[in-house]
Design brief:
The complex is a heterodimer of chains A (112) and B (114). Chain A is built from no helices and 10 strands. With 112 residues, chain A is mainly beta. Classes of the chains: A mainly beta (112), B mainly beta (114).
């Protein structure tokens, strides 16, 4: 909703540039990680996921990197477009678990 | 194929009133869950269900009840609304424990308790 962006870290990028959104997690037993995009007034939308046995996974214009040593996850968006403006959340879960733990989110603003 | 449908989209309640937030999915997903989203807090799990007849508590279950009588429906009940329950509520479903492709989320219910 409209209040999701309050008190969130904000990243502003120029249209056409690449964006990197970072996420730190604390649970070393986390096995599965997901990035979600949430536009104003809508529910979170799946972007890309990665399992703990991988370091990198690529989708269309998006790449997720996982560094288990420092418990860090990043989402890279290539050639950022105005339609990419949204709040981005990382989420994690343990092996075989249905339960997702979400990060607090980062608001991405694309400058035309 | 509607995905996950939540009703109502907006609701205002007075303190002490009760209501039920509806959630339905038509994807034959076994797993369903309810989250609340507050500014600066991300999404927090309230209750979840791994199949019809089975429910369990999440991170913030107090003040909420759920039931799962069918695979399709997973209503969330507020028995006595409090201002602290003012939030945006999301229902989500998933096919399996592997969480491939993550969850499918509904569009949310914005609840205000006055």
């Amino acid at each position: 909703g409209e209040n999701v962006g309050l008190h969130l870290p904000t990243l502003s990028v120029q249209e056409g540039d690449n964006s990197i959104i970072n996420c730190a997690y604390s649970n070393s037993a986390s096995d599965y990680f997901i990035w979600y995009k949430q536009e104003s007034g809508k529910g979170p939308q799946f972007i890309i996921d990665i399992r703990s046995n991988m370091d990198k996974r690529q989708g269309q214009r998006v790449t997720v990197l996982l560094n288990k040593t420092v418990k860090h996850l990043s989402l890279q968006i290539a050639a950022t477009q105005p339609g990419d403006s949204a709040v981005y959340f990382c989420a994690e879960s343990g092996a075989g678990s249905y339960q997702l733990t979400f990060g607090k989110g980062t608001k991405l603003s694309v400058i035309p | 194929n509607a995905g996950v449908t939540q009703t109502p989209k907006f609701q205002v309640l007075k303190t002490g009133q009760s209501m039920t937030l509806q959630c339905a999915q038509d994807m034959n997903h076994e797993y369903m869950s309810w989250y609340r989203q507050d500014p600066g807090m991300g999404l927090r799990l309230i209750h979840y269900s791994v199949g019809a007849g089975i429910t369990d508590q999440g991170e913030v279950p107090n003040g909420y009840n759920v039931s799962r009588s069918t695979t399709e429906d997973f209503p969330l009940r507020l028995l006595s609304a409090a201002p602290s329950q003012t939030s945006v509520y999301f229902c989500a479903s998933s096919y399996s424990a592997g969480l491939s492709y993550g969850y499918t989320f509904g569009s949310g219910t914005r609840l205000t308790v006055v």
